[in-house]
Amino acid sequence: MPKSDTKDARRCKVLLVEDHPMFREHLGQLINRDLGMSVCGEADNIRDAMRLIQETKPDIAIVDITLRGSSGLELLKDIKAQGLDINVLVLSMHDEELYAERALRAGAKGYITKNEASTEVIKAIHSVMNGEVYASRQMTARLLERMTQKRSSTELAGMETLADRELEVFQMLGRGKSTREIAQMLHLGESTVETYRARIKEKLHLRSAAELYLRAGQWVREHGA
Fold this sequence. Notes:
The protein folds into two domains: about 10-145, Rossmann fold (3-Layer(aba) Sandwich); about 155-225, Orthogonal Bundle (Arc Repressor Mutant, subunit A), CATH 1.10.10.10. Helices cover about 55% and strands about 15% of the residues. The chain has eleven helices and seven strands. It has helices at about 20-30, 45-55, 70-80, 95-105, 120-130, 135-150, 155, 165-175, 180-185, 190-205, 210-225; strands at about 10-15, 35-45, 60-65, 65, 70, 85-90, 110-115. The strands form two sheets. It has a five-stranded parallel beta sheet, sandwiched between helices. A two-stranded antiparallel sheet has the order 4-5. The longest helix has 15 residues, at about 210-225. Mean pLDDT is about 85; it is low at about 1-10 and about 150-155.
């Protein structure tokens, strides 16, 4: 549990990092109704989130995968790289089968999808605040299965072979972004983005740019990426 103040058992400070204002407002109301928690700040991008972490010293950050201009996975890596003392729960619309393991590897203490009931979201927050790792029963079962069984080459040929940055570029392509736009949004050189595109095509066995855009667009439509 969070350390006490001069007051008896102060409320846990929660930072919201979410790019949808309406959902952020709903989540803030949900958290503030809990006697043990209060929202200390809100952000929709990595730069503002890192600034608020430094300024407000939150006990926990609730982070979406999709943020304005970048990915919550990159925020997790920045937090880890700077050695910041904050627990992170990822709350996202994205399929946990692809993203939960990536988020946990990047430093998150839990992963929950937005289609879960409000009571389960609060339960996940409290679990992470108490020093536990939160994952759904389905995700826990998959992680245990991967630890005990060898994965086939067919599985490895799919989306899970993409590195985090490659997946981010893939999603942006699916949203119709050009190489130049992706480079600007991710603060990368256009040649670097082209390299990512080439790697994605190779890993997904795609023969042309047209196939890449088609596959990426289909992925975004199906997964809300």
